Amino acid sequence: MTLPALAARHAWHGAINPLHSTVYFSPDYFKELAALGIDDPNAANLAGRAAAMGPVGPGVVAATFYNYRYDHLARHLPAVWDTVSPEQVIAARYRAADSTLRRLLGDETVESPELAEAAELALRATEGCTRHARTLYAAHADLPVPEQPHLRLWYATTLLREHRGDGHLAALLIVGLDPVEALVSHGATGKGMTSKWVKATRGWDQSDLDAATERLRARGALDAAGELTGEGKALRERLETETDRLDAAPYEHLGAEGLARLAELGGGFVLKAVAAGAFPADLRGKG
Question: Which of 73, 26, 50 is nearest to 179 (CA)?
């Protein structure tokens, strides 16, 4: 690694992933999918993230999304493709990204040279990504690059998000966290989704979360109160460090100066989006 320690991780968490994720919580996206006949928010979310892979079923999505309950996926997939095609969903996501970014950031920011600069920096970083063993990244990388700068930026953050995510799944297997244990241990850091959102979007019920908590306690990763122990904190750090290693290539390709500038610009856009209400107030935290 030639980059400053944790620079890529901080940029991804603070400037890249949140910008991409605005669409997952955007009313604009759900309106677009409802207009196509998909009015169930879970079906809409699953279709949106899976569409680049084609009309896939629950098995493929369980493998590539990792932390969703299978029967939750099977309620919506592959049935959603009887109503809407993957191509229609991809087009709807871009329309939603356009309206969402304009609403959260404002037209002046969307059309600014700084946003165009961030888009080109993010796209340059994607040149260092690799397709092998990166299913979601590879599927999205086959889509054409949009022409408008704000959509180019959203497309690039999508690639960077899925590239790191694909590597993160490998890291989860290496450290031995199953889908529910991954969610529960992340929640215990205070940075993951609350149990309300885990149950609503991933399909798990309280008994699943309780069982995963007991497994983590037996492993020594959680204490009696459900807080991370020293061993649990070390486990989560090992997971992130392994993810960093697997995701280093795009940021090494961009270089320290480019990464710092992308983090500066993207971080500013994220702060503006958050201030404009991009995410639910109860999305993250313990509990």
Answer: 73
- pLDDT tens per residue, range 105-131: 999 999 999 999 999 999 999 999 999
CB 46 within 8 A of CB 73: yes
Contact in structure between 111 and 136 (CB atoms under 8 Å): no
Output the CA–CA distances (angstroms, integers) from residue 262 to 82, 102, 157, 160, 242, in the order listed. 40, 20, 11, 12, 23
- What are 25-42's pLDDT values in tens digits? 999 999 999 999 999 999
CB atoms within 10 A of CB 281: 7
pTM: 0.96
- The HSE-up count of residue 111 (CA atoms within 13 Å, CB side) is 4
- Report the pLDDT value the prediction gives residue 2, as an integer from 0 to 100: 82
Supply 250's token pair: 């795009």
What is the full DSSP assignment across the chain?
A: --SPTTHHHHHIIIIIHHHHHGGGG-HHHHHHHHHTT---HHHHHHHHHHGGG-S--HHHHHHHH-SS-HHHHHTTTTGGGGTS-HHHHHHHHHHHHHHHHHHHH-HHHHTSHHHHHHHHHHHHHHTT---TT-HHHHHHHTSPPPSSHHHHHHHHHHHHHHHHHHHHHHHHHHHT--HHHHHHHHHHTTSSB-HHHHHHHH---HHHHHHHHHHHHHHTSB-TTS-B-HHHHHHHHHHHHHHHHHT-HHHHHH-HHHHHHHHHHHHHHHHHHHHTT-S-TTSBS--
